[in-house]
Amino acid sequence: MKTVKIFTILGIVSFVFFSFTSIMQDKWVVPAKYQSMKNPTDPKADVAIGKSLYDKHCKSCHGKEGYGDGPKADGLKGDLGDFSSAEFQKQSDGALFYKTTFGRDDMPEYSKKVPSDEDRWLIVNYMRTLKE
Hints:
- This protein has helices at about 1-25, 30-35, 45-55, 60, 85-90, 95-100, 115-130.
- Helix 3 crosses helix 7 and helix 6 (about 95-100) crosses helix 7 (about 115-130).
- The chain has seven helices and no strands.
- By secondary structure, the protein is an all-alpha fold.
- The N and C termini lie far apart (about 60 Å).
């Protein structure tokens, strides 16, 4: 009987631990260095380039309007975000640059696909145009 209680307690503790860690993994932690990083590009300049890069690298998952409804979205796990939402738009440019650069889970790292920092900043600028 004592063994059953021990296994029951261990099971409950394990469940709570794994539930807690899965919740913690959902939060995308951006290092402070990137949170406060300033966008070196003019948000009004080269918007067409940012859109072109977005269309080539982002639209297939995030969708034309940034709703997370691109043709590849159904095959991915997790929340693809809604770029038009206030919650998304309140992130700093540096945070968006970090996420675009390094990726996480189903979000690929783009430092190799889009090796130019300036181009990734232009994508950030374009994502800003998707707000409602």
